[in-house]
Design brief:
257 residues; alpha/beta; TIM Barrel; binds zinc ion
Length: 257
């Protein structure tokens, strides 16, 4: 059985009935759990309302580095992140590729999230793009090794992956690994130990081959899994078993199916 460790079910632009069908399709393909990741604390309650009737969907709480227009105070973040239903803090992190101009607010927000993770004991979901040194330096400086977390939709260097893994972090791979242009990422994925790997769709974005151009959906995590299994020379069943076990080890508050 598979887990989609990172999706944005509230961004799928679907009616409640369509979302129920999307999840039913994924379950039929063997996906047993979905982690619906927040990008805005202000929209957190709406996101929760979208998914609360599905017992196999967990939620996180946080502000995406590229959503700093929705920035919130440390206290607001802490108040929501410590709620019982929240299994992780994020997504947070640093993205200097798409928004170098918002660097200083991104840094403040990222540090707040690390502190909230340590305060609540809930793991971090980290988005990192073109900000390798600052990401690792801040995680070390603010002692993120206590709560650890995941570098999601990873597209950076093996060196960065190894630095994070040394701190106890996991690395999550999306459908980008199936893209023609992703030769470097494929080399990185081959070198990451199976015990440290998660898989995700990041729906509704980044649909894997052969679904490129369509809206992505959690059921397509199967294509991501098949591709990585092939790349690493293990069976799809083994890849699924290990990444699912890793998921529940990291997100221990997520309800096991
Ligand atoms: Zn992200
Ligand atoms: Zn995301």
């Amino acid at each position: 059985m598979f887990v989609d460790s990172h999706c944005h079910l509230d961004r799928l632009k679907q009616s409640p009935e369509e979302l129920a069908e999307t999840l039913a399709f994924a379950r039929k393909r063997g996906v047993e759990h979905f982690l619906c990741v927040a990008v805005s604390v202000k929209e957190y309650d709406d996101m929760l309302a979208t998914v609360k009737d599905f017992p196999d969907v967990s939620v996180s709480c946080g502000v995406h580095p590229l959503h700093q227009d929705d920035a919130c105070s440390y206290d607001e973040l802490l108040e929501k992140a410590q709620r019982d239903e929240v299994v992780a803090v994020g997504e947070t992190g640093l993205d200097y590729f798409y928004s170098p101009e918002s660097k200083s607010v991104q840094l403040t927000s990222f540090v707040d999230h690390i502190k909230v993770a340590n305060e609540t004991g809930k793991p971090l979901i980290i988005h990192t793009r073109d900000a390798r040194e600052d990401t690792i330096a801040l995680l070390k400086e603010h002692k993120a090794e206590h709560t650890i977390g995941v570098l999601h939709c990873f597209t950076e260097s093996l060196e960065m992956a190894q630095a994070a893994i040394e701190m106890g972090f996991y690395v999550s791979i999306s459908g980008i690994v199936t893209f023609n242009s992703a030769d470097e990422l494929r080399e990185v994925v081959k070198a990451i130990p199976l015990e440290k790997l998660l898989i995700e769709t990041d729906s509704p974005w980044l649909a894997p081959v052969p679904h490129r151009g369509k809206q992505n959906q959690p059921g397509y995590v199967v294509e991501v899994a098949e591709f990585i299994a092939n790349l690493k020379g293990v069976s799809v069943a083994e890849l699924a078993r290990q990444t699912t076990e890793n998921f529940y080890r990291l997100f221990s508050l997520a309800k096991h199916a």
